[in-house]
Design a protein that fits this description.
The chain is mainly alpha-helical. Strand 2 and strand 3 form a beta hairpin. The longest helix is centred in the first third of the chain and has 29 residues. It starts with 6 loop residues before the first helix and ends with a helix.
Length: 503
């Protein structure tokens, strides 16, 4: 039956439905944020129940026959604007995908994820993977089911990758990682022959409050709007957004090592700036959402590394840092500091890894995830496999589970397919950063003067305003007339580290 309603009236009905769904999902997001920041220990079981209920409600709304009929009707209309048409196309695509999953399955997944998260927290506290293994095994069974429900070609992992980076495949990632790992390994080997950089000044006592205060100052200077967001402490740093006027980030602090807190602050600020920059008028609609996780990670990696670990950035901010920590950093020159924060040395913790060895952390997780989703690696054997790959790729002996396979939160969230986007994000970041400097000569000079607004303005114009209008590849074609090209990243790291190590 063809509706007699005008396209304008139909579109407004569609928009209202989508915003209602977004409201429900964001209520769930608030509960999840609270779960990872302030939830009392005894509240875990009920919180899992609450999250499961809301997830079921959101799924029912997202897959209702009324919404399906509305999307089909709008999809056939030819008098929508380009942006409206794209919103409808993407919502219809999401609808058809969600219809492949039952509400009961979605509820069960949510309940399992909640149990898995709390088991992971306890396992980390007690340094015992065995505590986490049973719930992780249950979650993996569900993720394999999900892959089968969604459908895939060639490899079940492709179905999960598509959730984070649309169109991404195992074949593409295998080729990409193969193309970068050789040059990275060669550069790391060259650096290994150089005199080691001394960065022990980072391993002194830095009080929690002083680190927090400096981190908060930097976050604000980078453009984070504290009237539209906040930062808190969590077990693992993350960013979540309920709308562009309420974006939450978290960090963690080690009083005996400076490197962990500040760069996680900058990393999460990159995510937050993206969320705060999405179009408010498109709330609840695809064009009000981020393009992909690869693009999202490009923002965090760009700010963390291209900016936050650059000599230009510290030319302005290092004197302020020395004022905050005069005893620890007063005797350390800016060049010693710059070289120290960029020291290349294999390490156990991904979030604290240098820009070169970092990608082997990602490759290790990617390889493990493929095996897990294939069903070719029993959950109980994860620590042994993990430790073997760290020895193979980074020549490191993993001393315990907390510094090994329990270090990341992602598996407890069921986020299988997420890890590759960290490397993709780094590759996109280098390409995007070079394009930004070529586009606006004020960007590089501005960073040296502590003014990152020109860069932020470029990102708002090039990335944020579009939401999900384009896929990652399409977005970069719009920005720079080409899709992902890892040679930008290889050029970036080669130039940077040849200078640091006088190669």
């Amino acid at each position: 039956m063809i509706s007699t309603q005008s396209s304008r009236s139909l579109y407004e009905s569609y928009r209202d439905r989508m915003r209602k769904i977004a409201d429900v999902k964001n209520a769930s997001n608030i509960l999840q944020w609270d779960q990872e920041t302030y939830l009392p220990e005894k509240g875990a079981a009920f919180r899992g129940q609450q999250l499961a209920t809301i997830s079921e409600i959101a799924h029912e709304l997202s897959t209702s026959s009324e919404l399906g009929s509305l999307l089909e009707e709008l999809n056939g209309r030819n008098d929508l604007t380009r942006q409206e048409k794209r919103n409808v196309e993407l919502s219809r695509e999401d609808f058809l995908k969600q219809k492949k999953l039952s509400s009961a399955f979605v509820k069960k997944m949510s309940e399992t994820i909640s149990r898995s998260f709390h088991a992971w927290v306890e396992a980390r506290r007690k340094n015992d993977f065995g505590i986490f293994a049973p719930s992780l095994d249950e979650l993996l069974q569900l993720k394999r089911e999900e892959a089968n429900f969604l459908g895939f070609e060639d490899h079940p992992y492709n179905a999960l990758l598509n959730d984070f980076e649309k169109g991404c495949t195992v074949s593409f990632l295998d080729d990409t990682f193969s193309g970068c790992s050789g040059p990275l390994k060669q550069l790391i080997d060259r650096i290994a022959g150089c005199p080691p950089i001394n960065n022990q000044f980072l391993a002194q006592y830095f009080s929690k409050q002083d680190q927090w205060d400096f981190g908060m100052k930097i976050i604000g200077k980078l453009g984070f709007d504290f009237s539209a967001g906040r930062q808190d402490i969590s077990e693992h740093p993350f960013t979540t957004s309920f709308n562009n006027r309420d974006v939450r980030i978290t960090t963690r602090i080690d009083e005996h090592h400076f490197s962990g807190m500040l760069w996680s602050c900058i990393h999460e600020t990159g995510h937050a700036l993206y969320e705060q920059g999405l179009p408010e008028s498109e709330y609840g609609l695809p064009l009000g959402e981020y393009a992909s996780l690869g693009i999202h990670e490009s923002q965090s990696r760009l700010w963390e590394n291209c900016v936050g670990r650059s000599l230009a950035f510290w030319t302005h901010y290092y004197p302020e840092l020395q004022e905050s920590f005069p005893e620890q950093l007063g005797p350390v020159s800016i060049h010693e500091f710059y070289r120290g924060i960029n020291k290349v040395h294999p390490s156990l913790i991904r979030t604290e890894a240098d820009e070169l060895t970092y990608h082997f952390h990602v490759i290790i997780r990617y390889n493990i995830e493929k095996l897990l989703i294939e069903g070719n690696l029993p959950t109980r054997e994860i620590p042994e496999c993990w430790n073997g790959l760290y020895k193979q790729y980074l020549d490191l002996d993993v001393p315990d589970d907390k510094r090994g396979c329990l270090q990341d939160i992602h598996w407890s969230h069921g986020s299988f397919g997420y890890f590759p986007t960290y490397s993709l994000g780094s590759f996109y970041a280098a390409q995007l950063f070079e394009k930004s400097i070529l586009t606006n000569a004020e960007i590089e000079g501005g960073i040296k003067e502590g003014n990152t607004k020109p860069l932020l303005d470029f990102l708002r114009k090039s990335i944020y305003q579009y939401g999900r209008m384009y896929t990652s590849g399409e977005l970069f074609a719009v920005i720079g007339k080409e899709s992902l090209n890892i040679n930008y990243f290889l050029k970036y790291v080669l130039t940077k580290y040849e200078d640091i190590y006088n190669l």
